[in-house]
Amino acid sequence: MVTLRYDEGTIRIEDAPTDVARLSFVESDPRSKTHRAAAYRYPFVRRICVDRGLPLDDRVLRTADIGDLRTEYDLRGYQTEALDAWRDANDRGVIELPTGSGKTVVAIGAIAALDVPTLVVVPTIDLLEQWHTELDAEFGEATAIGRLGGGTQRVEAITVSTYDSAYLRADELGDRFGLVIFDEVHHLGGEGYRDIARLMAAPARLGLTATFERPDGAHGAIEELVGEVVYRLSADDLAGEHLADYDIKRIEVDLTADERETYEAHQETFTDYLAQSGIQLRSGSDYQELVKRSGTDPKAREALLAKQRAREVMMNAERKIGALADVLDRHRGDRIIVFTAYTDLVYELASKFLIPPITNETGAEERREILDRFRRGDYSRVVAANVLDEGVDVPDASVAVVLSGSGSEREFTQRLGRVLRPKADNGRAILYEVVTNETAEERVSRRRR
């Protein structure tokens, strides 16, 4: 008889017949005189044994009893379609929906449908708290809700964890859950975080994200560990009925004469080095090669510093502040979020326009207070450097202003999503993108669209 056991992130296969032992993902373990496979292979090993009619003693999962899980949520049509698509894919795969469309609701529907112990993995403490509150409201009468992160380490039949805590305890907890949900699943592409999925035996796996594909191609690893995208809708698909209609308006500004001179000088230093060294920047890997060179080549380091200084000039252009002043004046009665790439600019804008700032230097309590007051209407605008892009419950706003940012499509999608929740007056959301003319920022703007 074939016996399957969980053992520190692996599935130990005792008395494996030859056809199982020869599977590409099964390895011999001479020490224990058994065979092993990574824990995430558990459902595949089990299915092979069952399909081949092998006598099987399955002792892998050590899940706790759980009450009858029910949800009060009435899923929208597209949320039901997403959940059905995931179930049709054998309870595996990724659901890609825009920010504000209710991915959490779909996940709660999945937990209630499977009615098994569940681990929810999130990237930030803010999301940890949001998920814990939501899960306790929905399932708190049936079971206690555990929490791993933010100073608490308590495991229950339904538990929410940060990626960091799950990474540290994955081999210990790998047999405790039948379903694992990865919120902002694109984070799982990080080499270390992949071990969370590798070391867990949970047969059911759900990934949630607004932007699945990663520039480094690591979404391929996520597809192996969680499953492929089984359902996908864009903001355009949901605009008008489930999300606010929206417009994206580009405001172009010119560098001042002094800024132009400084920008061109730095750009020239950078491009001259590329020409002299024969490096062509066609991809991220080409840029990484340049970074490696800078460790031993002073001229490469000088070129990179020049590139960074040119970027700072174009992204913090003086006339962007004037463009922002016009937008703030035009939308005096609207809630506005201003996004920048630089912390120093956040504080400059906060001082000039008397807008509360949020940066990575802002404490959790202060940030929560600012956002609560923004939600209540005490504040009508906030300015932030990257920290509101993902993993923070941001109150409804109708106008976003991107003064500067990267070429990341994910970042742009997250920022747009901050203004897409339906408006009480059915009004349109607006995202202003402020771009400096005749600089590399024009290319950055095209790339993130």
Describe this protein's structure.
This protein is 41% helix and 21% strand. The chain has 449 residues and is α/β, with parallel strands linked by helices. Strand 11 (179-183), helix 7 and strand 12 form a beta-alpha-beta unit. Helix 3 (77-88) crosses helix 4 (103-114), helix 10 (257-277) runs antiparallel to helix 12 and helix 11 (284-294) packs across helix 12. It catalyses: ATP + H2O = ADP + phosphate + H(+); Couples ATP hydrolysis with the unwinding of duplex DNA by translocating in the 3'-5' direction.
Give a short overview.
The chain is α/β, with parallel strands linked by helices and 449 residues long. It is built from 17 helices and 19 strands. It has helices spanning 18-21, 42-51, 77-88, 103-114, 125-139, 163-173, 194-198, 219-225, 235-238, 257-277, 284-294, 298-315, 318-330, 343-353, 364-376, 409-417, 441-448; strands at 2-7, 10-14, 27-29, 34-38, 56-59, 92-96, 118-122, 145-149, 152-154, 158-162, 179-183, 204-209, 229-232, 246-253, 336-340, 357-358, 381-385, 399-402, 429-436.
Average of the residue pLDDT scores: 89
Shape: globular
Number of domains: 4
The CATH homologous superfamily of the largest domain: P-loop containing nucleotide triphosphate hydrolases
Quote the distance from N terminus to C terminus: 56 Å
Instruction: Provide the CATH topology of the largest domain.
Output: Rossmann fold
Q: What structural class results from the helix and strand content?
A: alpha/beta
Count of individual helical segments: 17
Helix content: 40-55%
Q: How many strand segments?
A: 19
- Ranges where pLDDT stays below 50 over 5 or more residues in a row are none
How much strand content do the residues show? 15-25%
Name of the top-level CATH class of the largest domain: Alpha Beta
- Assigned CATH architecture of the largest domain: 3-Layer(aba) Sandwich
